[in-house]
Amino acid sequence: MRKTSVIACAVLAVASLLVATAPADAAEAAGTPGTTSGPCGYMATPDDPPARPVSLPPDPKHTPDKGIVKVLVATNQGPMLLSLDRAKAPCTVQSFLHLAKSRFYDFTTCHRLTLYPTLKVLQCGDPSGTGEGGPGYSYKDELPTGLPNWPTDPTGVSKVYARGTVAMANAGPDTNGSQFFLVFGDSRLRPDYTIFGSVDRLGLATLDRVAAGGIVSTPDDPAPVDGAPVRKTDILVARSLGSW
C-alpha cells in the first residue's frame, strides 16, 4: 500500500499517511475514468480506499485564483482561524474547501506532533487518526517559490517554512490528499510541500498549547520528539466563513 510521508526534513523526521480513494462524481469526471476534467485534474486513487466517503472536488474550467478564504477550525484545544490563499494554491484551496464543506474533517484527530529543533508541526486531516487515511484522490503540487533559505544551510536547498504556515503533506510529487500540517515554529524543509494558507494568532496559541503538552512516551522512547500529542487534539468542525 502506498504511504504518504508527512514531511521530509533535514533532521530525517519522516512520517507517513495513506492517500485514500473515493468514487468520483460522474458529473465531475470526464476523459480518463476517475479523473476530473478541469485544470486541477483531481484523480481517484483506487488502490487506497477512502478513510471517509467523499466525492472528487469540483473542477471548473477556471479555478478561482484570487482572494483569501477564512476557514474556522474548532478543536477541543481551542480555535484556529485559517486564511487560505487562492492565488498561491488555487487547486489546493479548492480541495480543502470541498473537504470542509463535505464534513470530511469534522470529528477527526490531529495524529502527529513533532518537536525536533528544526521541525515543529502538528499534522491533521486523516479521519482514521492513524496517519494512513486520505480522501480517495490525489492532485498536483502548487509549490512555493521565494521562500527564505534556512540560515545554516550553505547549499540553499533547505528553506524556512515559517511559524504560522499551513501546508500539505505528500508522498512525493503530485500526491496531495487531505492531510496537512500546521507550523508552530520555523521549520527546515525542502520546498516540496504546497503552502496554501496561514494560521491566526489565536490558532498559534492553540498550537503552542498542544506543543507544550509534549508527545506520548513509551518505555522504549521516554522523551519522544515525534508522535501523538499528549494533549489529544480533535477537530470538531471545519467550516468556511466566506463564499465558495
Automatic annotation (TrEMBL):
Feature: compositional bias, Pro residues: 47-58
EC number: 5.2.1.8
Span of domain PPIase cyclophilin-type: 78-240
Keyword Transmembrane helix: no
InterPro entries tied to this protein: Cyclophilin-like_dom_sf, Cyclophilin-type_PPIase_dom, Cyclophilin_A-like
Signal sequence bounds: 1-26
Matches recorded under Pfam families: Pro_isomerase (PF00160)
Keywords noted in UniProt: Isomerase, Rotamase, Signal
An example Gene Ontology molecular-function term: peptidyl-prolyl cis-trans isomerase activity
Catalytic activity as recorded in UniProt: [protein]-peptidylproline (omega=180) = [protein]-peptidylproline (omega=0)
Annotated region described as Disordered, given as residue ranges: 28-62
Keyword Aminoacyl-tRNA synthetase: no
Compositional bias of kind Low complexity: 28-41
Family of this protein: Belongs to the cyclophilin-type PPIase family.
Functional summary from the UniProt entry: PPIases accelerate the folding of proteins. It catalyzes the cis-trans isomerization of proline imidic peptide bonds in oligopeptides.
Protein's name in the database: Peptidyl-prolyl cis-trans isomerase
Organism, as annotated: Kribbella rubisoli
